[in-house]
Amino acid sequence: MARNTAHANGPATVTVKGRDVRLRTIGFVLLAGLAIWFIAANTESVTIRLWVPTVTLPLWGVLTVTLLVGMVLGLLVAHRRARR
């Protein structure tokens, strides 16, 4: 069973099977799992207009590219904030 622990001035953690796991890590794993499930559930082809050309792609490919671009942008913003 999980037990909440509070470290002085440290990140919020939960003890799972004797190991401290950050709540942030658990949230990330849950969101990643939901994103992968959502992508896998949407398999039909869609037509997308990119300003001039129109392309037909499987929806899972479009969602995967969107997820990856969002992750890269999020990492860049987090990196810039950490440098300040």
Please give a structural write-up.
- There is one protein chain.
- The chain is 52% helix and 25% strand.
- The chain is an alpha+beta fold and 84 residues long.
- The protein has two domains: 1-41, no CATH class; 43-84.
- A three-stranded antiparallel β-sheet has the order 1-2-3.
- Strand 4 (45-49) and strand 5 (54-58) form a beta hairpin.
- Helix 1 (23-41) runs antiparallel to helix 2.
- The model has no long low-confidence stretch (mean pLDDT 84).
- This is Lipopolysaccharide assembly protein LapA domain-containing protein.
- Keywords: Cell membrane, Membrane, Transmembrane, Transmembrane helix.
- It comes from Streptomyces atrovirens.
- The chain crosses the membrane at residues 21-39, 59-78.
List the helices and strands and how they pair.
Layout: E1 3-5, E2 13-16, E3 19-22, H1 23-41, E4 45-49, E5 54-58, H2 59-83
Antiparallel strand pairs: 1-2, 2-3, 4-5
Helix pairs in contact: 1-2
Q: Judging from the principal axes of the Cα atoms, what is the shape?
A: elongated
| Share of helical residues | 40-55%
% residues in beta strands: 25-35%
Structural class: alpha+beta
Main sheet summary? 3 strands, antiparallel
The whole-number mean of residue pLDDT values reads 84
Number of separate structural domains: 2
Ends apart, CA distance between termini = 39 Å
Note poorly predicted spans.
Answer: none
Give the spatial strand order of the biggest sheet: 1-2-3
Tally of DSSP β-strands: 5
Order of helices and strands: EEEHEEH
Rounded Rg: 19 Å
Query: Number of DSSP helices?
Result: 2
